[in-house]
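Predict fold of SSD domain-containing protein; 705 aa.
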Amino acid sequence: MSGRGGRATLVAVAVVLAWLVIGGVSGPYAGRLSEVATNDNAAFLPTDAEATRAQDLAGEFVDRQTIPALVVYERPSGITDADRQRVSADAARFAQIPGVVTPLPPPIPSDDGQALQVVVPADDAEGEEIGAVVEQLRDITGGDRDGLTVDVSGPAGLLADLIEVFSAIDGPLLLVTLVVVLVILLIVYRSPVLWIFPLLAAGMSYALASVFVYLLADADVVKLNGQAQGILTVLVFGAGTDYALLLIARYREELHRHDRPWDAMKTAWKGAAPAIIASGGTVIVSLLCLLLSSLNSNRALGPVAAIGIAATLLVMLTFLPALLVLGGRWAFWPRRPRADQADPRAEHGIWSRVAGFVARHARPIWLSTAVVLALLTLGLTQLGATTLGQSDLFTQRTDSVDGEEVIARHYPGGTGSPATIFTTEQTARQVAQVAKDVPGVADVRPLTAGPQTGPPEENATPKVVDGRVQLDATLADPPDSDGAERTIRELRVAVHQVPGADAVVGGFTAINVDTSDAAKRDQNVIIPVVLVVIAVILALLLRALLAPLLLIATVLLSFGATLGLCALLFRHVFDFPGVDSSFPLFAFVFLVALGIDYNIFLMSRVREESVKRGTRAGVLAGLAVTGGVITSAGIVLAATFSALAVLPLVVLVELGTAVAIGVLIDTIIVRSLLVPALAYDIGPKIWWPGRLSRANGEREARGAG
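Predicted 3D structure, encoded as tokens:
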């Protein structure tokens, strides 16, 4: 026996050492993900989107693709000669910045004489380095002085601010996530030792995921952006800690039944691994359904997050068990479990009482909780999915937002970021006239050949490339506003009707329009596929059809209630203008995939207990022994997603809030009350049409007799 125990220890040591070597190799990549991340919205568009085709055509009209930075100077009392001299001097220095495409057009005065605007085209090939270009622009302007305010805005200014926000992922977000997990583990385990094991395993999972994501992004197999990077961080630590809690709880139970930690771990692994694998598999498959998206950004998030969960599963089912075996009973100090054959339910007094409450009031419980959740779904009328404007993207003031507001006060909103229209040379004049007649279009000018030293005349000779010309349409509204998007839709309808024009409309606003349309299409395609996939996995795991359908129904009800509650909070508490068009799909994938996890943890244990005790007794036993660990896991996951709030982006704050609230609703209401009460009330038929429904039915009928 001692020889067997010695071999088990050697195996555990070998596994731990192997993982430490892997961690040493992969660890540095966790801090290098930002090097291969990109935040260019246009690159994420579908290849068949009109804005994408327009972008391809635009590349034929210029030697280098550019993204404009708009430097705007404002003096409410009126621009002075000294101000003009300062602007001219600044513009001369702008032209010297590496990455700026020269010559620069002359400063554009506002009609009211209170502002000057300099359009600084930055080389689009600079990619993430555009942030450095904008930083130099801001250094040159030196900020506000003597009553003259200066802001750097436009698409390049917005991109620079986004890059700065996402730079916090490698530092503050990771640190906050670690601290949150550490605090909760200390509270859950009340041990100065045990928290080390799941946290170390979660860190190993993140390192392993990072190396694969880095290599794939560096090889351009996947597109990694800041949003996906942030979600990867919280998902790995949140889900990893969940799986660790479940395994450790089962290991603790088995230590009461076995003398040796190795035997306890073998039994615990066999009991917990199927649920953990099914849970992780459900999340992975659900995330991979994002590959059906028409948006490259969504397609990137799916594999990136799925890699994170796959790495987490591998680590939690190999590295963590080996650590726990080496730790033995002392890892649980000061509450070390003894091999006393104690009933697991004896350690869960609170949840045993909850189980008793469910048994006495099953039908009123599931009916009342279902009604409460259904009432919360009424808040969905306040959701108002839209494309957030530039001033609505951030939770705090930024230079690009301030500049956008200045431009809106003194210029047509689309100045410096026009819509681009590509049409045939023969129909150019007709298309230009039709475009000018569209409400919301302030001006239409052709792109001319030669250096652009100012806006061309309306009737200037356009530059012709392969029989096509480019028209720049200045919109009356800011390019990221709802009004500008309506104008783009009307503009497309108008120019498409010109015979023989073969007109294509692109530009910054058109990208937003096509992104929003693609997001709506994705919801209609991906959500049903995710539901079917989850139903199949649950049916295979539980070997039943009725139970999976009921579980999916409860998660959908929870999802609707979460979004309804969030809609009320976003509008009336956080004062957000709405939610981004991608929010409902992301919220659905994460809430349904992660929410079904807790039902998998519960119902897989209920089924195991039902085989031994009968369905109704199995429901109560499963609830009693899993209640504490699943609730702890839910709190960990909710807290880790709440860490997204450290990034001052409305879309990530909304997603983090929604997942946190949804997970808490799932763990506290759905999994603790609604599902057990419903399963208890239905009884053995919950396993229909499996054999367990008939066997348990006969057993409970005999018991009743």
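The chain has four domains: 1-36+191-344, 62-166, 362-400+527-704, 418-506.
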